[in-house]
């Protein structure tokens, strides 16, 4: 299973227990990851590793797993790979969000697969800023 975030059409909004029944609550770590994703302002991004570092718990793979399973209810396109490559299989949908929000992008080179731009991580990366101060 991919450790990348997926759009809401392909993932349940709530976790399910082993019987396939909706669970009443998200795991605590998943809740914290999703809260951070909701804090990221439009036009900005955090990497999976940034989110884990901000939470001082887990790592990029754990954050990616949470986003893959539960991220459909939050702005999943704002939690990204460190290299700025758009989520494979969901590039066009993510690109629509980035363009609507004014997220800085780097145009793809001619040799890039499908000529899909990347996120300009130097300009788009968000460090948690003042809005997140005191929120843990």
Topology:
Blueprint: H1 28-39, E1 46-47, H2 48-55, H3 60-70, E2 79-80, H4 91-101, E3 105-106, E4 118-119, H5 121-124
Parallel strand pairs: 1-2
Antiparallel strand pairs: 3-4
Explain this structure.
This protein has 136 residues and is mainly alpha-helical. It is built from 5 helices and 4 strands. The chain has helices at 28-39, 48-55, 60-70, 91-101, 121-124; strands at 46-47, 79-80, 105-106, 118-119. Strands 1-2 form a two-stranded parallel ribbon. It has a two-stranded antiparallel ribbon with strand order 3-4. The two termini are 29 Å apart. The model is unreliable at 1-21 (pLDDT under 50).
Order of H and E elements: HEHHEHEEH
Number of helices: 5
Beta content: 5-15%
What is the C-alpha radius of gyration, as a whole number of Å? 15 Å
Helix content: 25-40%
The strand line-up of the biggest sheet is 1-2
Low-confidence stretches: 1-21
Structural class: mainly alpha
Shape: globular
End-to-end distance: 29 Å
Strand segment tally: 4
Query: Mind summarizing the main beta sheet?
Result: 2 strands, parallel
- Give the overall pLDDT as a whole number: 82
Quick tags:
two-stranded parallel sheet; 6% strand; mainly alpha; globular; 5 helices; two-stranded antiparallel ribbon; 136 residues
Provide a short characterization of the protein structure:
The protein is mostly helical and 136 residues long.
